[in-house]
Amino acid sequence: MTTPVCTSANATQFTDYVRTKGQTLLRTARSLTPNPADAEDLLQTALTKTYLAWDRIDDHRAVDGYVRRTLVNTRTSQWRKRKVDEFTTDELPEPQAPGQPDPVEQQAQRDALLRAIARLPPRQRAMVVLRYYEDMSEVQTAEALGVSVGTVKSAVSRALGKLRDDPELELCVA
Fold first, then answer.
1. Is the distance from CB of 70 to CB of 49 less than 8 angstroms?
2. What is the pTM (predicted TM-score) of this model?
3. Residue 169: is its pLDDT beyond 90?
């Protein structure tokens, strides 16, 4: 006989949490990885880990920080193990309609920014994502990552300096 991982009452709480916070957490996952399918996988993995630990989490008001930390840690582990799986294609995008912004250029700028963020050290990258993609305050970011507010301020400042000096991003602005 197997023991349940999560009691039925707590499973209901977990389901309610995912329904309430799912889109916000997916946004966080998407900011940690450029591929939307990878972001969904990342979130699924983090939610699975959260579900398994749900009964051990004493303060369910702190679940957001737990899940975000799980997202960052899981992404860091994936990044360390990941092999390159990008492929070139001979297909060209559809032509642009007149008067609309060039979607290829917009995507190129977004890709350049994501590559620049990916080149940041994992800790700085996590702080930039939480501060600017998740729109968390310095205090919230510090609590989520278990560091001091001063650490967040200095690390984000250094990260933004690196992004400002990134030659690939300079080409996008020009």
1. yes
2. 0.45
3. no
